[in-house]
Design brief:
40% helix; eight-stranded parallel beta sheet; alpha/beta; binds pyridoxal-5'-phosphate
Length: 222
C-alpha cells in the first residue's frame, strides 16, 4: 500500500470539518510511522495493549483514539494515553472511565456509541436508551469525562439506502442530544461515522470523524 499517498489523498478529499482517524489496528508501527510522516496525527486502535505498545514507539504528538469494545478491567491501562474513546457503550463503562480519569487527574474525551445496525454487534446504546441516559442526569455528575458526541456503525451491506438510513438515525440522535442536553457544551460536536466502504455516505449525512483502516493501510494481518 502507498500509505503516504493514501493519507494525502484523504487529506484533499475530506471536506472541512471532517477529520480522518487512521485506523491502524493490527498494523505494524512502521506503517503508522509512514502515515505520521505524511502528516497524520490521529490514529485509531481497538486493543488497549496495542495502544500501550505503539504509544511508546510513536512520537508524543500522536492522538490515540480508542474505537473497539472496551472492557472495564482495561480502562486503567488506557486512560493515561487516550485522546478520545469512541466506544462508550454502557453507563457502567462511562462511570468507570470517569472514576479512573479523576484518580489520575485527567479529563477524558468520550463519545457515546449508538447501536443502529441490523447485525451481530451487540454493543452500544439504542437511540432511546442513549437519550434516556442523558436525561437521567448521570452524565452531568461525571466531571472526569467530557462527552464530545456520538459514534456509530452502519450495517455492512451493499444496500446504500439502508446505510444512509442508519447514518441518518445517528445524526438525528446527535441532534436530539445536542438540543436537549448539550446545547451549552461546545465540546459536544462530534459524529463519528463512516469506514472505508461507507465514509462518503457518512459524510453526506453529517459525519465529523471518519474511521478509515483498509483504504489507508490495506488488509489487516490477523
Ligand atoms: C476496524 C474498524 C474501522 C476501520 O474499518 P475499515 O473498513 O478497515 O476502514 C472503523 N471503525 C471501527 C469501529 C473498527 O473496528
Amino acid at each position: 500500500m502507498e500509505i503516504a499517498k493514501n493519507i494525502k489523498d484523504f487529506g484533499s478529499e475530506l471536506p472541512d470539518g471532517v477529520k480522518l482517524v487512521a485506523v491502524s489496528k493490527f498494523h505494524p508501527v512502521e506503517a503508522l510511522r509512514e502515515a505520521y510522516d505524511a502528516g497524520q496525527r490521529i490514529f485509531g486502535e481497538s486493543r488497549v495493549q496495542e495502544i500501550q505498545l505503539k504509544h511508546r514507539l510513536m512520537p508524543a504528538d500522536v492522538q490515540w483514539h480508542f474505537i473497539g469494545h472496551l472492557q472495564t478491567n482495561k480502562v486503567r491501562a488506557l486512560v493515561p494515553y487516550v485522546a478520545l474513546i469512541h466506544s462508550i457503550d454502557s453507563e457502567r463503562l462511562l462511570a468507570c472511565v470517569d472514576s479512573e480519569a479523576k484518580r489520575i487527574g485527567r479529563t477524558v474525551n468520550v463519545l457515546l456509541q449508538l447501536h443502529v445496525a441490523q447485525e451481530e454487534t451487540k454493543f452500544g446504546f439504542s437511540p432511546e436508551e442513549c437519550i434516556a441516559f442523558a436525561e437521567s442526569g448521570a452524565i452531568a455528575q461525571m466531571d472526569g469525562v467530557r462527552v464530545c458526541g456520538v459514534m456509530g456503525m452502519a450495517t455492512n451491506t451493499d444496500d446504500e439506502a439502508q446505510v444512509r438510513r442508519e447514518f441518518r438515525i445517528i445524526k438525528e440522535t446527535f441532534d436530539t442530544l445536542k438540543r436537549r442536553f448539550f446545547a451549552d457544551a461546545d465540546c459536544f460536536k462530534e459524529i463519528s461515522m463512516g469506514m472505508s466502504d461507507d465514509y462518503r455516505i457518512a459524510i453526506e449525512e453529517g459525519s465529523t470523524l471518519v474511521r478509515i483502516g483498509t483504504s489507508i493501510f490495506g488488509e489487516r494481518q490477523y
